[in-house]
Amino acid sequence: MKTLAIGADHAGFAYKELLKPWLEEQGYTVRDFGTHSADSVDYPDFAHPLAAAVASGELAQGILICGSANGVCITANKHAGVRAAIAWLPELAELARQHNNANVLCLPARFVSEDQARQIARQFLTTEFEGGRHQNRVGKIDC
After folding, report:
1. What does the pLDDT look like over 51-81, one tens digit per residue?
2. Is the dihedral of CA 112, 114, 120, 125 positive or negative?
3. What local confidence, expressed as pLDDT, does residue 49 receive?
4. Each residue's pLDDT tens digit, 115-136
5. Using omega within 30 degrees of 0 as the cis cutoff, is the peptide bond preceding 35 cis?
6. What predicted TM-score, i.e. pTM, was given to this entire model?
7. Which residues are catalytic?
8. Rounded CA gap, 110 and 112, in Å?
9. d(Cα 89, Cα 41) in Å, to the nearest integer?
């Protein structure tokens, strides 16, 4: 079984809880980085630990969820080796994997339905990086 990181702030809590059992049904072991309630919290407190686990290689991929996905994406991308991408359509998740080798999916809970969130996550998790001409570009991301 592949282990997948998941984390959210209060705005993404319900979607995180919705996705966890679905991800397990898809064959993933899910490591939950919080939050553990819908009480107001600060997204960096959950995005940084998840991103650190991906950056270190402890976990290969993660999903972060907040209201717009902007906050968690900005935070995660502060970690060298993390390539976090916001996706509100499955096609964007697919391109983030194919062309950018994204390793953290950021979902905007206030802008996608529950079904769309599952579709986007499925596309992200089942799409491979194309490499080739994209590898050179991705190699230039980290400073």
Report:
1. 999 999 999 999 999 999 999 999 999 999 9
2. positive
3. 98
4. 999 999 999 999 999 888 999 8
5. yes
6. 0.96
7. 66, 99
8. 6
9. 26
pLDDT at residue number 82: 97
DSSP state of 129: P
Contact (Cβ atoms closer than 8 angstroms) between residue 75 and residue 95: no
> DSSP character for 84?
E
Lowest mean pLDDT among 24-33, 83-92, 132-141: 132-141
Measured CA to CA, the distance from residue 136 to residue 99 in angstroms comes to 11
Token pair in block for residue 143:
């400073």
The Cα 83–Cα 60 span in angstroms is 11
* Alpha-carbon span 101 to 48, nearest angstrom: 19
Task: Go through the chain and tell me how many residues it has.
Answer: 143
Which run of H or E residues covers position 21?
A: helix 13-25
Q: How many of the other CB atoms lie within 10 Å of CB of 25?
A: 8
Tokens of 27: 């064959």
Q: Which amino acid is at 38?
A: A
